[in-house]
Amino acid sequence: MSVPLFDPQAQLFSLAAASGQMFAPDSPFRLFAEKIYPRLVAVRGELASCYCADNGRPAVEPVLVRGVSLLQFLENVPDRQALELLGYHAGWAFALNRALGQPGFDPTVLVRFRERLIEHKQAHRAFVAILEGLQEAGLVARQSKQRLDSMFVMGRLARMSTLECVRETLRLALLELETSASAFGKPAGWSVLRERYVESRFDYRSEEATLRAKLQQAGEDLLSLWQWGKALSDPTIARGPKTQLDGAYVSVERIAQMQAEGRQLIGPAQSAPKKDGRYSTEDFVISIAERRAKCPAGQENTQCSRLEEEKTGKVSYRFEWSTHCHKCPLREKCLGKDQKHRTLVVGAYHEVLQARRREQKTEAFAEEKKKRNAIEGTQSELVRGPGARRARYRGLAKVRLQNYFIGAACNVKRWIRRLQWEMNQARRTAVGVAILQESG
Fold first, then answer.
1. By the 8 A CB rule, do 301 and 316 touch?
2. Model pTM score
């Protein structure tokens, strides 16, 4: 298909003629037409490489298709609904300089347009065009550093399907129990389960071993909930032992990985659990490399064993104190009722975990965490608005293109809101000046 003829000027029978009556100065569609549409026109020449120069029938105007794609992500609608809005929504027609009664095009044009962008490496251009507009407007500093969240928008789709299904099942079950369990009580470890599956989101770009471990963990939690529910319905079934859960917001494996890459991951790690006020792992000084540990009484371990799970390959270390515990003055604060000597099992990254636990208690960490909190609003906005957490298309290239459009749509929305705020401030200032002049 060839590049069609294009006239960037407003057409005689477009909605621009009636814009003053239909759209207020601070209307999002007017601001889109005045600020965003010219940016799309300015980079039209870059799309020429996606089409034949003068061979074949003219294609649908690429500026229009790109504008529809951008509005599509702003409204978070599928292809077919986007074309319906283009046909009957006056705001869309005005924003994209459409003539009244102008025929639309088939939704498959959007599909082929995305394929062209990927094939000719133009996936990022809409995002960059909006970003450059924000920079020229002085709203975004050039070459500024941005802090990113620990969660990635794009997941490993081939590996996450089963895990996502199980975790989503748990999330919905816990949400249901939150309202229906008042009559019979909630299961053991409720707060940790809720934090793990409702309040937090798992990074599906983790390593294969981590994904397998998380799937096994989710399966065990699901089985535990099923057994709990079955025991409620059948009182003759004995309740099993309570499962101890680890609900850290950021995993120690991810902290260690970021440190190895020279990057910093800001986020709290869950404190070590304390049983009946007894000493926890945080009260022990442990060196994995030296296989040595010192208890609160100052005694070193007598034995250290390296443990490795056959299925997941997860490595942990078991420290033991034997004769030291017999006459220790801190025995009651350290050992349980039936324990003869203290044992301690820690992960391979325990020292990293301990360092984060100490660090997160400082004022400096609290100040640094405020920067991390700032991205949470953006993360929530991307998920609740354009639907960043769910892939529309199959394949990483198409998902990457989706993320570029989502980022561009988010920037467009913020740009328009900024312009609306500036207009509102100008009106308030003008009203204030008028009042002062009348009173003076």
1. no
2. 0.54
